[in-house]
Amino acid sequence: MISFYDVTLRDGNHAMRHSLTPEFVREYCQIAEQSGVWAVEVGHGNGIGASSFLVGKAKSDDNALLTAARDNLKKVKLAIHAIPGFATIKRDIIPAIEAGVDIFRIGTHVTEVTTAQKHIEYLSGQNQTVHGVLMMSHAIDLKGLVSQAKLMAGYGASAVVLMDSAGNYVPKDVAIRVNALKQEIRVQVGFHAHNNLGVGVSNAITAIESDATIIDGSSMGLGAGAGNAPLESIIVNYRRMESNAPSLDKFLEMSHLVETKCPNYLPRTTSSSIQSGDAGVFSGFAPQVKQLAAEFGVSQEDLWQELGKRRLVAGQESMIREIAQDLMNL
Amino acid sequence: MAALITGCSAVKSILVLNPAEPPVMMRTTVHVRAANFDLVQILQESRDLVAKVKNYVPGYDLVVEPHVAGSGQISATVKVLGSGYYLPEYSGNLDIINAAAVETATQHVHLSRLNREIITT
């Protein structure tokens, strides 16, 4: 059985430029509670504790969002994403435990798993459910991927989630990576798609066929860059594969809520998202790339290519201006 | 502590590691939000300060000058190229600590000599 993991209220916060409110969380969670989704992830787009001028100041603080979700989720688990370097144990993780979070996902750039050791070990020592997330998982070879996943499992993570943060994968990339992890590690494997190349849903379905057991998606695909794999589309596909799949109604109700409440934030696959996905650059950079390409009079494609060449990681928003400036001065 | 040093009411520091090859040079970006500011004065003071630090950290550079980045927000980036004696050039973060220690020691010696001269005369 697949655990469907809803990132609308976290990754979607990227698309909403971090304007998520407790009112929206409340309304969304009331439907999610009835939907058959396994967990709802809530917080700033870059995870709890990330609100900043660098990656975007959040309109509502993490605790207010988590409390609104907790009050409306009983059967469904409340989850958070946290990135060491933004989130600290004392300032962010401990208050999240106190707010009643059920699942803690600790994410790092795919080559930097050692930075998550303290966070994962702390949570596992507190008997909390903790998952490791490999962000930008395309940016490493297969052998490296497996060894980084093994580190996370060794620290105490009970699942390892592959994030296609750049939306760079096509289905065969997903199959190769999920299969390798399933063979090499004993913990659960999850997959998180982005739709930059238009294959987010196909990638999620391929992950299911490759025996991943946690599948991420968001209503209407609300998420960074070209968005995630739309959860309702994953579900309708999954219903053709599995007889006891969740029914579709509540998923459609959630997507309808997103469509009506956030009409100006709905993501889609665009020429820019295809360029960023193909160049393997973090989807969340899209607003800055658009703005700075215009400001410095350089093309978005050249800027995405250059960001790809310099292998930027999530959180390096401040380098985009410097690189745009360099391109202008070429 | 950070609030004490900067005089700002709220401060957040964010660490980013990048495994890229060739390595990324150590850099720091500062974003400040303020009710009122004089960009011309900030520019002048930043250039003066960078020139002063360059005396003991030659690889210290203002790569993105202070600019208005959004409403009421000023941003600037410095890059630190290390001397490359013992550590690789990209690890300017470590090099600047050593350079600051050497500079502190130099000033300390200078001041204590000055004090001795004052006491003996």
Question: How much of the residues of chain A is beta strand, in percent?
Answer: 5-15%
Tally the helices of chain B: 3
Cα-based radius of gyration of chain B, to the nearest Å: 18 Å
Strand order of the largest sheet of chain B: 1-3-2
Order of helices and strands of chain A: EHHEHEHEHEHEHEHEHHHHHH
Which descriptor suits the 3D outline of chain A?
globular
How many whole angstroms does the radius of gyration of chain A measure?
18 Å
Q: Flag low-confidence runs of chain B.
A: none
Distance between the termini of chain B: 41 Å
What does this structure look like?
The complex is a heterodimer of chains A (330) and B (121). Chain A is of the alpha/beta class and 330 residues long. Helix content of chain A is 44%, strand content 12%. Chain A has 2 domains: 259 residues, TIM Barrel, CATH 3.20.20; 58 residues, Orthogonal Bundle (Helicase, Ruva Protein, domain 3). Chain A has an 8-stranded parallel beta barrel with strand order 1-2-3-4-5-6-7-8, surrounded by 6 helices. The model of chain A has no long low-confidence stretch (mean pLDDT 96). Chain B is of the alpha+beta class and 121 residues long. Chain B has one domain: Dihydrodipicolinate Reductase, domain 2. Helices cover 41% and strands 21% of the residues of chain B. Chain B is built from 3 helices and 3 strands. In chain B, a hairpin with a 4-residue loop joins β2 and β3. The longest helix of chain B has 29 residues. The model of chain B has no long low-confidence stretch (mean pLDDT 90). At the A-B interface, α14 of A face β1 and β3 of B.
